[in-house]
């Protein structure tokens, strides 16, 4: 069993050295697409030999390049338009990441049975297109191991599984694992946007989804929990118990940590009244942390998060 | 006591002698990696020690760089074999990730061996054209405006709050068709290997022939 934490970082944060000493980071196209000089940014990074080289990031840090995603914002100018999938893949290749996220269409609460089937079919088509394009351009070999993954690949693929019930996620994961090294579960949406469920019920549903996917994938692929909201200690324990059961390798993506560290200047701490709850508290209220810079806060939060995971592993071991 | 100074010619002779057994091994086993690495390492040592005695000539610097690239490539290839063997034994995801990362390094080391002009050309070819970004931005704006108009008509926001049902249906149909065109254009823009003008011409031709 292995657990890593992946942080969502912006170009400014990468320049400021946030990527030093972490397990990995997620960098998506929305950071530069809405800027007027998007092309210059992409070309500059490509000529410098990739994002890691351009920002002097250590090779051991995992870099996941995110795909376009429809960002729903109240401001029209912040909305992101989904570009054609292959164009995004070409762009992603220029950044030389370790993992490329396959573009996916997320499901919506309003989607009916037909719509869901269409979206899942489109997601599968996009994955096949990505795989074929990488083979045709010499980034992947066409001959595979018995497990289905190609024998050679310059990039790993992260396929995101969507579904409307736990077994649907498992079904998608079964398809994704034929072509992808990393199987992603979009947990953030399940925890924040599902209507009509209380928080414990949402965590329970997430647990069922993760269990169902791990049941299919086992310990043959890395499973990435995309946006796992760390707000309950018991929820972390549940996930770790599952990971231990299946001897799985999990990557937990936490954009909340970065957001709280840099914008809100808050450090992760336990709630005294309810020891199960984790909260972010302003540095002014924490003794010894008053003069922390955003980078210090981020490092502290990363350390605490890792400590929590280790502690949870020990308690659940 | 200072070390006795060795003539560069003497160092060259010693290097040649040291390299000989490895060359014999390579002649026997053409795909051997370690002897090739040893050869590259010996020549790198030679040029580095030579650079301490006198500045290297252009040709010598080039040869040193070639040996360095060859060494990196061979080291990466060796790592690939080792990681592939480990993954074949264990089939664990962490070993698969390690294998992929090593393969990534191997790919980069191989790309390094290309002549700089060819490499730059390869990178430039991969970067999507500037016109595409401009065109995408324009299509994006267009789609946003059309979506806004479509919503306004559908839910009868001003200035469409007083229109008749027939007019509403008609505007919805027109805006819907325009939106479809925009999406088709965005898809066309992603096709590689065609110039912008060529793409638009192709798109117009397809539309003229009645493609949806």
Structural features, described:
The complex is a heterodimer of chains A (317) and B (212). Chain A has 11 helices and 10 strands. With 317 residues, chain A is an alpha/beta fold. Chain A has 2 domains: 2-252, Queuine tRNA-ribosyltransferase-like (TIM Barrel); 254-317, no CATH class. The longest helix of chain A has 24 residues, at 113-136. The model of chain A has no long low-confidence stretch (mean pLDDT 86). In chain B, α3 (58-90) runs antiparallel to α4. Chain B folds into 2 domains: 8-126; 130-208. Chain B has helices spanning 8-28, 34-53, 58-90, 93-112, 116-126, 130-154, 165-190, 196-208. In chain B, 80% of the residues lie in helices and 0% in strands. Chains A and B meet through α2 and α4 of A and α4, α5, α6 and α7 of B.
In CATH terms, the superfamily of the largest domain in chain A is Queuine tRNA-ribosyltransferase-like
Count all strands of chain B and give the number: 0
Number of helices of chain B: 8
Radius of gyration of chain B: 31 Å
Morphology of chain A: globular
Helix content of chain B: over 70%
- Most extensive interface between two protein chains, with residue counts: A-B, 40 and 36 residues
* Low-pLDDT ranges of chain A: none
Q: Which band does the percent of strand residues of chain B land in? A: under 5%
- Average pLDDT of chain B, to the nearest integer? 84
CATH architecture of the largest domain in chain A: Alpha-Beta Barrel
Number of separate domains of chain A: 2
How does the major sheet of chain B shape up? none
Question: Could you name the ranges of chain B where pLDDT drops below 50 across 5 or more consecutive residues?
Answer: none
What is the number of domains of chain B? 2
Helices and strands of chain A, in order, run as EHEHHEHEHEHEHHEHEHEEH
Helix content of chain A: 40-55%
SS-derived structural category of chain A: alpha/beta
Distance between the termini of chain A: 11 Å
């Amino acid at each position: 069993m292995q657990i890593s934490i992946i942080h969502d970082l912006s170009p400014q944060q990468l320049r400021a050295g946030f990527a030093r000493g972490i397990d990995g980071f997620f960098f998506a196209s929305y950071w530069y697409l809405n800027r007027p000089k998007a092309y210059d940014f992409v070309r500059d990074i490509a000529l410098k030999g990739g994002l890691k080289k351009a920002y002097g990031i250590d090779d051991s840090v995992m870099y996941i390049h995110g795909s376009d995603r429809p960002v729903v914002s109240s401001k029209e100018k912040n909305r992101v338009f989904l570009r054609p999938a292959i164009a995004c893949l070409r762009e992603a290749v220029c950044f030389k990441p370790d993992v490329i996220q396959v573009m996916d269409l997320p499901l919506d609460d309003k989607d009916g049975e037909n719509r869901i089937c269409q979206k899942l079919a489109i997601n599968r088509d996009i994955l096949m297109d990505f795989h074929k394009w990488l083979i045709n351009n010499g980034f992947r070999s066409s001959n595979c191991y018995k497990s289905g993954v190609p024998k050679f690949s310059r990039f790993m693929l992260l396929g995101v599984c969507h579904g409307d019930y736990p077994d649907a996620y498992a079904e998608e994961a079964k398809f994704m694992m034929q072509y992808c090294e990393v199987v992603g579960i979009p947990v953030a949406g399940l925890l924040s946007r599902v209507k009509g469920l209380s928080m414990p019920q949402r965590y329970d549903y997430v647990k069922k989804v993760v269990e169902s996917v791990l049941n299919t994938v086992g310990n043959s692929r890395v499973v990435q929990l995309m946006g796992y909201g760390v707000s309950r200690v018991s929820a972390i324990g549940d996930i770790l118990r599952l990971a231990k059961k299946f001897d799985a390798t999990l990557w937990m993506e936490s954009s909340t940590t970065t957001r709280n560290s840099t914008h809100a200047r808050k450090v992760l701490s336990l709630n005294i009244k309810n020891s199960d709850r984790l909260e972010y508290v302003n540095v002014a209220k924490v003794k010894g942390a008053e003069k922390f810079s955003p980078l210090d806060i981020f490092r502290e939060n990363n350390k605490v998060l890792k400590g929590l995971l280790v502690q949870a592993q020990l308690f659940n071991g | 006591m200072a070390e006795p100074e060795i003539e560069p010619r003497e160092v060259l002779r010693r290097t040649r002698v040291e390299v000989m057994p490895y060359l014999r091994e390579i002649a026997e086993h053409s795909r051997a990696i370690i002897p090739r690495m040893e050869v590259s390492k010996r020549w790198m040592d030679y040029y580095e020690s030579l650079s301490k005695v006198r500045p290297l000539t252009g040709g010598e610097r080039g040869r040193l760089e070639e040996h360095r690239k060859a060494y990196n490539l061979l080291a990466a290839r060796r790592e690939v074999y080792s990681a592939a063997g480990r993954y074949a034994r264990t089939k664990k995801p962490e070993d698969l990730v390690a294998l992929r990362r090593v393969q990534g390094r191997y790919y980069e080391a191989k790309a390094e061996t290309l002549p700089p002009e060819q490499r730059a050309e390869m990178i430039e070819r991969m970067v999507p054209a500037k016109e595409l970004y401009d065109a995408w931005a324009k299509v994006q704006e267009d789609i946003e405006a059309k979506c806004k108009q479509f919503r306004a008509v559908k839910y009868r926001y001003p200035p469409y709050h007083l229109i008749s049902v027939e007019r509403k249906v008609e505007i919805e149909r027109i805006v819907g068709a325009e939106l479809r065109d925009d999406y088709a254009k965005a898809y066309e823009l992603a096709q590689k290997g065609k110039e912008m003008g060529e793409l638009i011409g192709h798109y117009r031709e397809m539309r003229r022939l009645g493609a949806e």
